[in-house]
From TrEMBL:
Coiled coil: none annotated. Residues 4-95 form the Pyrroline-5-carboxylate reductase catalytic N-terminal domain. It holds the Pfam family F420_oxidored. It comes from the Bacteria. This is NAD(P)-binding domain-containing protein.
Amino acid sequence: MQNISILGCGWLGFPLAEALLAKGHAVKGSTTTEDKLIELESANISPYLIHTNDDIISSEFLNSDILIVLITSKDIESFKRLIGQIETSSIQSVIYISSTSVYPSSNSVVTEESPTNDSPLAQIENLFRRNTSFQSTIIRFGGLFGYHRKPGNFIRSHNTIPNPEGFINLIHQDDCIGILMAIIEQNIWNETFNACADSHPKRADFYIKEMAKVDRLRPILDPESENTYKIISPKKFISVLHYTFKYSNLMDY
């Protein structure tokens, strides 16, 4: 059993906490909403009200073995403060959830060795990567979907699918949780992984199918699109973690 803190118990963090509890771990979870504290506590997740721009984060929340950072903030100064507090805590290992948006569209296959853009997210990754006080593993997730987050609702503007000849880089919530559990169980630290399904259908094919599922018929393929894209390769983490996807073929989802 390990003590694990999840900074951001939302759409992904809450079911991840439940999965960790089922494996016998003790879990602390943070939220920015007071009303959700009761929900966390009722699920046996020790609840904490934390905003990432707070000058001081609860030392008790950081009194764990592993910290999973699952927030969307790109405030570099807030992360510098957070890392400073982790350095003086009992945290030994950190999983930082990043995004494949750190890669520019290159109309090519992208691996962990591909150049990233000069974005706040890439800079925050480097803050964790260069720190020597604790171990860090960085996960660059593709687009997240599953359960009430339905891909058919992702296209909103005038029912028009942009970049219809581009390719999809998505990952289901269940596979996100499976990958994070595998990293913890196998003690895979000081690594950077791309994580998305190992199938990449064309955007037009995928979204026409998914929009029909939510009764959004006859989408328009944007004729003005430049059709820039990137195809995110998940081969590294599949090899290292020996991971088998639950939702591999996105056209079968």
